[in-house]
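Session log. Operator J.P. requested a structure for one protein chain; no other inputs attached. Running the standard single-chain path with token output.
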Amino acid sequence: MKAYVTLSFALLLCSAAPAQAAPLGTRTVLDNGATLLVAERPGIPMVVMTILLKTGAAADPDGKAGLANLTAVLLTRGTKKHSAQALAEELDFLGASLAVDADYETTTISLTTLTKNLEPALGLLSEVLISPTFPEPELERKRKEIKGGLRSREEEPGWVAHKAFVEKLYPHHPFGRLVEGQPTTLDTLTQAEVKKFHQTYYRPNNAIIALAGEISQEQAVNLLRTQFAGWQPADNPRLVWPDSQQPSAATQTRPRREYSSSPVRHNNPGSHARCLHGQGSRWLDSPSYRG
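Structure written below.
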């Protein structure tokens, strides 16, 4: 799903009038603190929208690895107005797709819909973002699903080697643990902890909202003000990164070699999450990211 949304964004951004290239987009900060990016592409009867929250698995408390990921995958499993099944049926009726992804430093919620169905689709997205209920039966089902995925991956030598590699590469660091956690930490997660994580980090002043397609900035602002009226800002706890570990003598016995900086990606079991290892994320410290 993430690949589909990324491709949709690329196609929309590349579409332009033949005479001259269209501007990349506009940027503004909404009253609730969210950063809004809009790439208007007239004549394309669809809109691709992504909400990026600047919090991911790195914010999992000690002993609670997998909390951010579990929170993300439960967003679409029930809201105050719709059950998981009813929500899926409504999206299907609108011809819209909705996906949630968790990573180490971000969580993304992506919506793709026809322009004519944007308002009702945004209404559903608003429910998922602002008023999920995290039903206990769905939580237990997702917990078992993620644990089953982890057990199946333990039979893959390449995955086991990769897991051991990142644990050594990032000792005592969030990047050294799996986004989806471990069976032992997943067993400790409660509905109350999931709700608290959502209430703490799923805030507009912790978000970047990007839209591309047949929509203007003015239309986007008006729609978001209407559909996301109940989304209120709050103080976000500052993530404190652990100090870098000094390399041991054993790691210094060979001369250091330079390797390609190309990232290595792999799919996480039990969710839509994608992991990125071996590459820094300095872009997260840029002014555009921080809003």
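Operator note: Residues 1-7, 14-19, 245-290 have pLDDT under 50 and may be disordered.
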